[in-house]
Amino acid sequence: MRLACKVGVLTTTLASAAAVTACGTASGASGTAPPTTQQVVQASSASSSSQPAPGQSSRPGRGNRTHEGTPAAGATRTSRAAMTPRAGGGAASPSAPAVSTAHPDHVIGHGTPASCTSQAVVRAVAAGGVITFSCGPRPVTIVMRATAKVRNTSARVVLDGGGKVTLSGGGVRRILYMDTCDPAQTWTTSHCQDQSSPVLVVQRMTFADGNSTGQLFDGGGGGAIFDRGGQLKVVDSHFTGNRCDASGPDLGGAAIRVLSQYQNRPVYVVRSTFRGGVCSNGGALSSIGVSWVIQDSTMSGNRAIGRGANPARAGTPGGGSGGAIYTDGNRYTVTIDGTVITGNSATEGGGAVFFVSNDRTGTLRIEHSRLRGNPNAGFHTAGYPGVFFLGRGTPLVIASTLS
């Protein structure tokens, strides 16, 4: 079913906690089973469509579109006048500064690379708190022998690599996992998909060669990081060569997959890079019903390789949309600010960005950014090369280039 588009302006925050739509609202006393993501995925696949509507293009974009302007009345915008250069130039972000780690709760390692082990990472993440590394003066790669899992009893987990630590999935496993609705990590509330904690912050880290293929609990995806519930922030971090399942209509996020956040507060991704990710959808990022603020970041060489779109065409496994970013749901927002998205691709729609709001309330804002050379073999929204958008009105594009 298609709903009529409703013209409006984008806001970067939602008006109320009632906007949490990805997983519904659990009811009843503690112990009642939370809603499953499989139910959400099925509902999303049934109600949304990634096939081109009237006004959409069925061919990859070749044009050049540059927009200059200011937000319409009611739009929210932080002044960036003194913050140059733009588009991935590394300007400081006021929205999500790094967390102070001057007084860590846990330090992984004893000053040598050999002392920084997968077991130590897993143990520290399970314990929670502020975590830093002491692995010696040179960069170090820790190959994870098991996925590090956040326990839902933690108030927050801050993982800070100081710019020298790479966590590697070795091409065979997911690296970091948080799911407030996973009983195995302790189910702490009857509204697990909308609780304020844990707060997960990763900063000054590199996540390489994570792979969540076959890990389908709560819908799968998230080769480097999977997060359902709580709150997530990523600052000054790098993601390279991550993977998730190669097919599936609503499965995605080679680097990061997110399902529901507390009061639909946005996931912040700041001054971070995403390269070489491959998944059915969302070669870098993917979510259902989640808002994002992506600032001063770079996404390149990521691929959505599924086939059949969403819902899957007859005889296909589904997927293939959002070469860099794949988002679906109802009332949510995506803001892309000061970011370069280039050289990504999709076998179906949206070589750079795929955005579907099933009830057409969701909004997309692109400002001070460059989206270039992101081909899609299937479809995009006419006039917005590399972008497929079904939401409220049209994308709000400010001082940005799409080509």
Notes on the protein architecture:
The protein is globular, with a radius of gyration of 20 Å. The protein has 2 helices and 31 strands. It has one domain. It starts with 36 loop residues before the first helix and ends with a strand. With 403 residues, the chain is mainly beta. It has helices at 37-47, 118-127; strands at residues 56-57, 65-67, 106-108, 129-133, 140-143, 148-149, 156-168, 176-179, 199-208, 225-228, 231-235, 238-240, 256-259, 267-270, 273-275, 278-279, 285-288, 292-295, 298-300, 303-304, 325-329, 333-337, 340-342, 345-346, 353-357, 363-367, 370-372, 380-381, 387-390, 396-398, 400-402. 57% of the residues are buried.
- Head-to-tail CA distance between termini: 31 Å
Strand content: 25-35%
Q: How many domains make up the coordinates?
A: 1
Cα Rg: 20 Å
Give the beta-strand count.
31
Task: Count the DSSP helices.
Answer: 2
- Secondary structure class reads mainly beta
Shape: globular
Secondary structure blueprint with pairings:
Elements: H1 37-47, E1 56-57, E2 65-67, E3 106-108, H2 118-127, E4 129-133, E5 140-143, E6 148-149, E7 156-168, E8 176-179, E9 199-208, E10 225-228, E11 231-235, E12 238-240, E13 256-259, E14 267-270, E15 273-275, E16 278-279, E17 285-288, E18 292-295, E19 298-300, E20 303-304, E21 325-329, E22 333-337, E23 340-342, E24 345-346, E25 353-357, E26 363-367, E27 370-372, E28 380-381, E29 387-390, E30 396-398, E31 400-402
Parallel strand pairs: 3-4, 4-7, 5-7, 6-8, 7-9, 8-10, 9-11, 9-12, 10-13, 11-14, 12-15, 13-17, 14-18, 15-19, 16-20, 17-21, 18-22, 19-23, 20-24, 21-25, 22-26, 23-27, 25-29, 26-30, 27-31
Antiparallel strand pairs: 1-28, 2-31
